[in-house]
Every structure is written in C-alpha cells, then in structure tokens.
Specification:
The structure is a single chain. By secondary structure, the chain is mainly α. It has 8 helices and no strands. It has helices spanning 2-15, 19-50, 58-61, 64-83, 92-115, 151-204, 208-213, 225-229. Helix 2 packs antiparallel against helix 4 and helix 4 (64-83) packs antiparallel against helix 5. The radius of gyration is 36 Å and the shape is rod-shaped. The chain starts with a helix and ends in a 17-residue tail after the last helix.
Length: 246
C-alpha cells in the first residue's frame, strides 16, 4: 500500500507542487461538513419533537444540501488520486464546478439559517408573580426559557452548526480559488504543448526551398570573389580580402 501512495504523491507533486495544501483543505472541509451535518440534523429533530413542524424548519434544511455535497465530494477528490496512481489526476475543472456549486448554495443557506434561527426568539422573563411565571400564546413570556424550553437547546445547536458551516464555506471558497488557478495553469500548459507540437509539425513538413531558406549560413568559405562572379559560390559565402592573398 505504501508504494501505491508514494506513486500517487509523486504524480500529484508533478501535477501540482502544492498538492498538500489542497489535500489538507479537503480533509478539514470533510470534518467541518460532518460536524455541521450532525448539528443541523439534531436541531431539526429537536424541532420536530416539540413543535408542529413535521420536517423541521426549512432554514435548517437548506444548509444540508451544500454540506452533503462537500461531505461526499471532498473524500472522493482526496482518495481517488491515491487509489489511481497510474492514471492522470482529476481535471481541476471538476473542482471548479463542484466547489462553485457548493459555495453558491452555501452563501444563501447560511444567510437564511442565521437570519431565521431559533436564537433570535430568545427573551428573558418579563412578567413574574412571585414564583409564578405566566405562559401562553399571548403572554409576554411566550418565548422565555421557562415557557419555551425547546428553542434554547435548538438555538444553541443552530449556532454551533452555523459556525462549522461558515468555516466550511470559507474553506470551500479557498479550494475554488485554488482550482481556478490550477485550471488556468493546465490550460496554459496545454496551449504551450499544442504550439510546440505545431511548430515541430511545420518544421518537418516544409518544402525543400523553405527548409533550405531556414538553414543557417556557413560561417567560412575558402572560395574567393572569382568563384562568386562565376556563380560557383553564394555572395554571402565570400570571404572579404580573399583575393588579396590568392
């Protein structure tokens, strides 16, 4: 197994010298996505058990889509090059598309998740008669902890989940930028290779006249001006002053 991973590292290093930065970000993003998924699922379950929301709040469901994409794709993108060392690494265009989709879904998801979280409903006890706290749908204490105890642990779960989710969005955007840079470098390398191959092809498919015209001129010719006049040597092949010593 170790030679397999060594070969994969060699190919990844040849394709991208800073591959370990990308691999580290992918590993961290996987753990962030896992913890965010668990916390959002716990908040949804707590809401289902205490309130009349059959599937939880929709603002807690929205982040699950980008979280699941990140949780599935990052391990695949991290492990596939290690398990396929003899093949070309994944094209960075895949990373650009997936990370752009994750980031585009994650930004509005965290806006709605934070903006409509249970923690905004927290309030202190406003009306109290000795040890009696009146609770009810029209009471001033409706959303206080003694009257609505379920929204407080649910709100804490939402806060923790959004912290992990925000970090995941930041890491995903960083991976998107790195993927764009890798794609640009690969495109430039492909263009240079195509241009070099085209130049070689043109060089070997020239006509004899074009090939002779591009040959370097001789640096020295023993023939003198008389040979030039008789047409036995090219004018550029004459050596200045050769007639003086003939």
């Amino acid at each position: 197994m170790r030679p397999l991973f060594s070969e994969a590292q060699r190919r990844l290093r040849a394709d991208n010298p800073r591959w370990w930065i990308k691999a580290s970000l992918q590993a961290i993003s996987t753990f962030l996505a896992f913890f965010a998924l668990v916390l959002f699922a716990a908040a949804i379950d707590l809401t289902n058990r205490h309130y009349k929301f059959p599937h939880g709040l929709w603002n807690d469901w929205m982040p699950l889509f980008p979280v699941l994409i990140s949780l599935i794709y990052n391990p695949v993108a991290f492990l596939v090059p290690s398990l396929r060392p003899s093949r070309t690494p994944l094209h960075p265009g895949w990373d650009v598309g997936v990370y752009l989709l994750t980031w585009a879904l994650g930004v509005p998801s965290i806006v709605f998740s934070v903006g409509l979280g249970w923690f905004w409903w927290w309030q202190p006890v406003l009306v109290k008669f000795n040890d009696f706290i009146p609770c009810g749908p029209y009471s001033y204490n409706r959303w206080s902890e003694p009257c609505a105890p379920a929204i407080y642990p649910a709100g804490r779960l939402e806060i923790a989940a959004n912290v992990f989710f925000a970090l995941l969005i930041i890491f995903t955007f960083t991976l998107f930028v790195l993927a764009c840079i890798s794609t640009h470098k690969r495109r430039r390398a492909a263009q240079r290779a195509k241009t070099a191959a085209r130049n070689i092809q043109l060089q070997f498919h020239r006509s004899p006249e074009e090939h002779a015209a591009h040959e370097p001129l001789p640096a020295y010719s023993p023939r003198g001006p008389s040979d030039v006049e008789n047409g036995n040597a090219a004018p550029h092949a004459a050596v200045p002053g050769a007639a003086k010593y003939s």
